[in-house]
Amino acid sequence: NLFGGKIPFTLHDDKPDHACLNLASESKRIDYPKPDGKLSFDKLSSVFLSNTNHEEDQPCHLRLTDPSIPITRNLPLYDEPAQRYCPAGVYEIVSQDDGSPYSQINAQNCLHCKTCDIKDPAQNITWLAPEGAGGPNYPSM
Ligand code: SF4
């Protein structure tokens, strides 16, 4: 209010968001309470409310420049952060039959927020516009 909304300069942060992630080994694990279904909700219930949908047989609109990076780099260094910052649970680390981790992309749930494109510490994810009119659909908005 000091300048009445006309501040004569702009504050810039030169460090990109993807370079600001702390290593998992230096971070404390946060135990969030379970969603109560009244004020807090699990991710997939919220994805359901968004009515998001993409044609099943279209190419994945989330492109990894190097498909090995989620397991070889992001998992050991950052505990693969895409599992957490994606609001739709699109990125999952699943265990294969032999116990080794595998990176799975559930692109059909994508809410088009583009967080993964911005936040991936390796800048390995490119969000592309999906085919057709796929995506979230909030009919009551
Ligand atoms: S654009 Fe958003 S919702 Fe879609 S995969 Fe990336 S982080 Fe998840």
What layout of secondary structure does this protein have?
Layout: H1 43-49, E1 62-64, H2 69-78, H3 82-85, E2 91-95, E3 101-105, H4 115-119, E4 125-127
Antiparallel strand pairs: 1-4, 2-3
Bound molecules: iron/sulfur cluster.
Iron/sulfur cluster binds next to α4.
The overall pLDDT average reads 93
Name the CATH architecture of the domain at 31-55 and 65-127. Answer: 2-Layer Sandwich
Hetero compounds: iron/sulfur cluster
Q: State the name of the first-level CATH class of the domain at 31-55 and 65-127.
A: Alpha Beta
How large is the share of residues in beta strands? 5-15%
Following the backbone from N to C, one meets helices and strands in this order, namely HEHHEEHE
Q: Please give the radius of gyration in angstroms.
A: 18 Å
Shape: globular
Would you give an account of this structure?
It is a single chain. This protein is an alpha+beta fold and 141 residues long. The chain has a domain at 31-55 and 65-127: Alpha-Beta Plaits (2-Layer Sandwich). It contains 4 helices and 4 strands. The protein has helices at residues 43-49, 69-78, 82-85, 115-119, and strands at 62-64, 91-95, 101-105, 125-127. The protein has a two-stranded antiparallel ribbon with strand order 1-4. A two-stranded antiparallel ribbon has the order 2-3. β2 and β3 (101-105) form a beta hairpin. Bound molecules: iron/sulfur cluster. Iron/sulfur cluster binds next to α4.
